[in-house]
Design brief:
The chain is mainly beta. It has two domains: about 40-125, no CATH class; about 145-475, 7 Propeller (Methylamine Dehydrogenase, Chain H). It is about 10% helix and about 40% strand. The protein has four helices and 30 strands. It has helices at about 40-50, 70-75, 90-95, 115-125; strands at about 10, 15-20, 145-150, 155-160, 165-170, 180-185, 195-200, 205-210, 215-220, 220-225, 235-240, 250-255, 260-265, 270-275, 280-285, 290-295, 300-305, 315-320, 325-330, 335-340, 350-355, 360-365, 370-375, 380-385, 390-395, 405-410, 415-420, 445-455, 460-470, 470-475. Strands 5-4-3-30 form a four-stranded antiparallel β-sheet, with no helix packed on it. It has a four-stranded antiparallel β-sheet with strand order 6-7-8-9, with no helix packed on it. It has a four-stranded antiparallel β-sheet with strand order 10-11-12-13, with no helix packed on it. A hairpin with a 6-residue loop joins strand 14 and strand 15 (about 280-285). Helix 1 (about 40-50) crosses helix 4 (about 115-125).
Length: about 475
């Protein structure tokens, strides 16, 4: 038995299993370990003794209520207090062990938690933070967003209903190095599996919905991933970190992860997208102003030149849900190109939209009305009306610090933009230039973020703190 939405990692490639985040299931443990699961009543006694005097009622500190399991799991207005199966990264434990200025609540005049009490809370969280009846939080979460943390080999899993981190996948616990560099994520339309590229580890990994590692593939400096929602292939481009990679993209049959490299005859292929319905693949070069169109049925490739005297450096592609429009972002010329794919194989842009500096990953809303693009060097987000093909708003605010990845919720209610937050600067005159975490934990100054944008108001409604260097985002896009 494994914990629901679990953290038991089975590496089929090696024919063995590896338990992550504590015991394999609540109340059980591998081998001769006969320890019993910690009853939630013991956890609540600790909270009642040290925490609920401030964290209860209408004026609960930081909006966090700690007087019940439901309240603890709900977290505060800012985010989660507990990440099931991951005590080390749970704020409840971090504040009582890492907070600069003294552990909470001692730093506000309260009585500090004893080592035994911290150990009890940690063990309970590592068991999955079960309720009084053994229920695991978010075991049935349906709409998941995966965020790569490129500096620390971690993938954060976010529930898009509550916009909270509900799981972490620590790749080091699977044997990958700290500098494995998880970069981009693709998710099956039904959410059954997800894929992540590891730049430095030269791997593409496949996980199931329960975060079990299913298979892996060797691929030199993988970057962006794109799957054909109507076919069987997953495609992989090359990372920006690859100086002279093969002039080829990876074509992976998702059912068995068989990989073939297909030459596309342009240097440093990076931007990548698959057209719904046709399965046609588009990629572009970081080094020259060229786009390659790949036709999987016969592996034919067509090259097109992008006009302009300056090098554009195409970063990302996104295709509208109806397959009609494709947009491409350019790092060096600050432009969003608009392509009408009904005119293919002619790949001359039908429109160009000037945006702020270094537009990065673009994404469409499910109805195709809006496109969102973070500006990596401007710490803003472009909102593009695809009906008029105009830039309608530039969003600026706390949490935007070198924007990178982009995704939308399946219902189109929220757009998500991840940020690297790698720059260190004393110049905080402009909101979002450098993100300062809500709590100083001594080593989290470069915490990454995922900014949540309400697509109706076009305003930032939440900042989700994740691990270092928020890069690619991936979410299921139902057919």
């Amino acid at each position: 038995m494994k914990a629901p939405f679990g953290f038991v990692i089975c590496i089929s490639l090696l024919g063995s299993g590896l338990a992550i985040g504590g015991r394999e299931a609540v109340g059980t443990a591998p081998g001769n370990d006969t320890r019993q699961a910690i009853p939630y009543a013991d956890v609540q006694r600790v909270l009642d003794g040290k925490c609920t005097s401030c964290h209860t009622g209408a004026d609960a500190a930081r909006g966090l209520h700690l007087d019940s399991w439901q309240a603890l799991i709900a977290g505060s207005d800012h985010g989660e207090a507990v990440i099931p199966f991951d005590a080390v990264r749970s704020l409840l434990v971090e504040l009582t062990t890492k907070l600069v200025g003294g552990p909470h609540p001692a730093e506000v005049g309260g009585e500090r938690l004893t080592e035994a009490e911290v150990a009890l809370l940690s063990e309970w969280i590592d068991e999955g933070a079960p309720s009084e009846t053994g229920g695991i939080p978010y075991a049935d979460a349906q709409h998941l967003l995966y965020a790569a943390n490129q500096s620390v080999a971690v993938v954060s899993v976010i529930d898009m209903e509550t916009n909270q981190v509900i799981r972490t996948v620590d790749l080091q616990e699977l044997g990958f190095p700290e500098n494995a560099s998880p970069h981009h994520i693709a998710v099956e339309p039904d959410g059954s599996h997800w894929y992540v590229s590891l730049i430095t580890a030269n791997q593409i990994l496949k996980f199931d919905r329960d975060n079990n590692l299913v298979e892996r593939n060797d691929f030199v400096r993988p970057g962006l991933l794109a799957l054909d929602p109507d076919g069987e292939n997953l495609y992989a481009g090359r990372s920006m970190a690859a100086v002279s990679p093969p002039q080829a993209i990876g074509v992976i049959r998702r059912s068995d992860m068989t990989l073939e490299e297909v030459g596309i005859f342009l240097p440093r292929p990076h931007a990548l997208a698959v057209q719904p319905g046709t399965g046609t693949v588009y990629t572009a070069s970081l080094a020259v102003n060229q786009i390659a169109t790949f036709f999987p049925e016969d592996e034919a490739v067509e090259l097109d030149e992008l006009e302009g005297d300056r090098q554009h450096t195409m970063v990302g592609f996104a295709i509208s849900p109806d397959g009609r429009w494709m947009i491409g972002t350019t790092e060096l010329t600050g432009t969003v190109f608009v392509f009408d794919l009904d005119r293919a194989p002619l790949m001359t842009p039908v429109d160009t939209i000037a945006v702020n500096a270094a537009p990065w990953h673009p994404v469409f809303t499910p109805d195709g009305r809006w496109a969102y693009v973070g500006n990596n060097r401007d710490n803003t987000v472009n909102v593009i009306d695809m009906g008029t093909r105009t830039l309608t708003k530039v969003i600026d605010g706390i949490g935007l610090a070198q924007p990178h990845g982009a995704a939308v919720s399946p219902d189109g209610r929220f757009a998500y933009i991840s940020s690297r937050n790698l720059e260190m600067s004393d110049d905080r005159s402009r909101a979002g230039h450098v993100y300062t975490p809500r709590y100083d934990l001594g080593g989290n100054t470069r915490a990454g973020t995922v900014v949540v944008i309400d697509t109706e108001s076009q305003e930032i409604v939440k900042v989700i703190e994740i691990e270092e260097y928020g890069s690619g985002l991936g979410a299921a896009v139902p057919n």
